[in-house]
Each structure stands twice: as structure tokens, then as C-alpha cells.
Request: fold
Amino acid sequence: MRKPIIAGNWKMHKTMEEAVDFTEKVKGMVPSSAQVETVICAPFLFLDRLVNDVKRYNVKVGAQTMHYEEQGAYTGEVSPAALKGIGVSHVILGHSERRELYNETDEAVNKKVLSAFQYGLTPIVCVGETLEQWENGETNEHVKSQVTKALQGLSEDQVKSLVIAYEPIWAIGTGKSSTADGAEEVCGHIRQVIESNFSKGAADAVRIQYGGSVKPENIREFMNCPNIDGALVGGASLDPDSFLKLLEASA
Ligand code: PEP
Reply:
């Protein structure tokens, strides 16, 4: 039985005051960690405060990216050691916005995934196709390539403990989500890729989220799919009431 995981991706939203206000409203209302794993992925600046504010309330805190080196002359970057040191538990890697806007390659994503494990962070590895690839029927091939490259060099146990987020790029922030059947088919395909690259045990254990315009109104459709174990949520994770509804629907 795979435990559902809902992760909010705040992207570059909120001030510190708004972040603290959010956690004040949700803490105490979050379903138990036995029912659903809850993660908030916030801008770097808020992470330390959020970890301390929510650690007693079944909420884990994640970063939205990181560098793969422990330290060095990388102006503006944040290291996995620094994240781990303040109690961050998860990190989104290879989000399509990082790939598109900051030229993050499959090779860099792989280095970051390996590094995250070295520092005890759980990666949420994002994969997904463009609209053009989707229209040309290239989704499965593209996603297979991204998954294979991102997870290169991992042990079977590491694969079992990570999270993959299938996010069609055309569905992110557009209000136009994939159909549940369409998302289920690709998530099932990702599981097959994991089975052929690693093992049936790894494929059965790895958790796969759907992401792309998930809202309280449509989350149940995705959560009812056998190969979908949760959601990575952008816009609808920003409002406390909406975030709590997403959690309730997944618990
Ligand atoms: C995301 O940020 O990964 C995402 C899926 O955003 P949204 O839910 O707003 O589409």
C-alpha cells in the first residue's frame, strides 16, 4: 500500500508574513501522517521558519530546487547540506519551469537526485511533455527518457523511496488539467519503465504524483486512479482552505 503524498509548490509566491499566516491557518487541521504525507515546498527564504512552525503538525517542508554540490563558488545557489541542516525533508527537482527557464538538463537533474540522497533529502522528480510532444503522441517516449536519465545510478532502495511527479507542461498553471485516464496511462507507463530499469519491487513502491491544474474540484478523479499516489499542486496550494480540501480529498 503506497501512502498518498500531496505537495504544494508555492513557486515564487508569498511574503514571509503571508507564509506564516498560511501555516497558522492550516496547522492543527492537517490529516494525520498515517493518512497522507503533506509537504509544502516554499521559497528558500521561508524554509527555516516553516520547518519550525509546522514540525509538530504532520507537515513536511521542501525546497523547489537545489545545487548538487555540498558547497562552493556558486553565487545565489543553495546546497543540499544547508537544506538538510535546517530540517528540510524534500526537494523538487527538474520542475519544467527550472528546465525551461534555467536550462536545467537531464544530466543536472540526475546529479541533483544523487546528491539529494547523499544528504538524506527525498527528491520529487518532475517529468512531463510539451503540448507539441503530446499532440504528436511522443509523451511516453519522452517521459521514459526523462525518468531513465534522472534515476541513473540510483539503488533499488533509493528508487523505492523517491517521488516522481508526472506533470504535462501544457497542464501546469493553465487551468486545463489532463484527464484522469490520460494521467493514469502515463503514470502506469512510468511504473513499467521503473520495473524494466530496476525491479518490480521498486515499481510497486515508488510513488507517482500527477501535477497540472489540480484543484479541490478535480483531485478525487486523480486519486481514484491505481497508479496515481498523490499530486504536486501549484496554484491551488496557495490558499489555506483550498490546500486543506486537497488534503481531505486525498486522506
Ligand atoms: C506545479 O507548479 O508543479 C503545478 C502543477 O502548478 P499548477 O497546479 O498551478 O498547475
